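ugh ok fine here u go
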Amino acid sequence: MAISLHARAKSPGTAVPHTGSKSARADHVDPTFHLFLFPTLVLFTLAITLPALMGIFFSFTDSIGFGEWSFTGFTNYVALFSDPAVLNSYGFTIGLALVTVILVNIIAFLLAIALTARIRGTVALRAVFVLPMVVSGIIIAFVFNFLFSNSLPAFAESIGFAPLVGSMLSDPDLAWIAIALVTAWQAIPSALLIYIAGVLSIPGDVHEAASLDGASAWAQLRLITLPLISGYVLINLVIGFKNFLNAYDIIFGLTNGGPGTSTRSIAMVIFSGFTSGDYAYQMANATIFFLIALVIALIQVRLTRGKAAF
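structure:
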């Protein structure tokens, strides 16, 4: 009986169904994927890629944004490196980004540790701390502008603290501090959520075992928590630094680049080219700014590679 079944299976007239290999089925892409992907690629190309390429192209011209233009080669790029206004804006923006990203990550990490502790009301406190994330930056800037210009000087005068009797925003040495504080206040919630996710991903028995071995809270924080959430730290550093390099709305609402030009960010200088007739010149500035941001991001990823927790 077994022989006859075997022979019948081998006979030329018997059809053997072909199901195909698992890898072949896995490589098959559902047409619906392309249906959703194509419109997204078209919109991204028209809204992001094409304007960026056009901007890079016009950076090699003398265009004012409309009308006739001619090629000037690298003239705009050479002029940038001897322009004090551009160099000062780069120094201010990079310094602001460094100070703010450090401030944001330290505070957000400490808050994440506190809000994941076994205390009452943590859910309500998390909701309170993430509120600044849903408020527009320009609204936040106008509110703090009033506080720095009116409420804080009045309070400083009432207690006799002379350095803050005048508005911080009118002092070139203090205005950047106000900008950093407000920028950090708005950015802390998003970093906080990422750190909370990282802390909650650590198995509870790890800390319990460390406690049984006699490890202090500081030792557990330094030797267990920080190494296990290093990937989340990397995310916050890269995203935060990139966002702070693009600082615009809060600076516009607080100082509008003043006093004088002491708090003008790179983004503000670039946008000024659209109204001052320096379109091609500021497109060259934008191209260099993009390359600097890209290099910084690659350096950060390179230095922290292998330290991610996921």
